[in-house]
Write a structure and sequence with these properties.
This protein is an alpha+beta fold. The chain has helices at 23-28, 79-99, 168-191; strands at 4-8, 34-43, 60-71, 105-107, 110-113, 116-117, 119-125, 130-137, 156-157, 160-161. It has three helices and ten strands; from the N terminus they run E-H-E-E-H-E-E-E-E-E-E-E-H. A five-stranded mixed sheet has the order 1-2-3-8-7, covered by helices on one side. A three-stranded antiparallel sheet has the order 4-5-6, with no helix packed on it.
Length: 197
Amino acid sequence: MTITHKHIDEIFEYDGSQINPSWAFQEFGIYGSSIITWIGPVNITPDNLKDFADVGLEIKSNYMVNFICEFFDQQPTNMRIAYLRQRLLVMIFREILTEYGVATTREGDDIFVDGAKLSISIASVSLSSAKIHFALNLEDRGTPDDVETIGLYDIKINNQQVFTENNILELINKTVSRFIEELETIENDISKTKVLG
């Protein structure tokens, strides 16, 4: 499976509509499986909520790193595989944070630093593709009042800020590269494994 990564320098809002099928093709002319990343606010409108548990809740932040992943390799699409890939992405990101010296905990697809929520995520499927939205606060600003949150720029080790505008793109690219590599490795392992029986 070939996966195209495109980082968008333009700042724009994630409102939930970007998880609709073929968004990368419609907006950027990208065919096939893709990962689109960008920095911008999140304010998911009620009509774009995909998680029944989130109905009535505010999902918003002034400043987030956004990942939109779309996969066309499963026909018909498979919700279970979409969620397994989402968890894989979350765990890879946690692994990378550990390499920067940042301790985290995980509850399902949510990442926490010092008990404060760092990320949001959802996976779903359409008739043609599987989609994942994964986003990380950059700053603890504009998030719901009833949720304790933290941003990547808020994380400090020995009073030193770990992530800044100077290295955030490196973090994004490292995460995407490792995720794609993991998915490609799985495909390679499948192709060289003898079936049982």
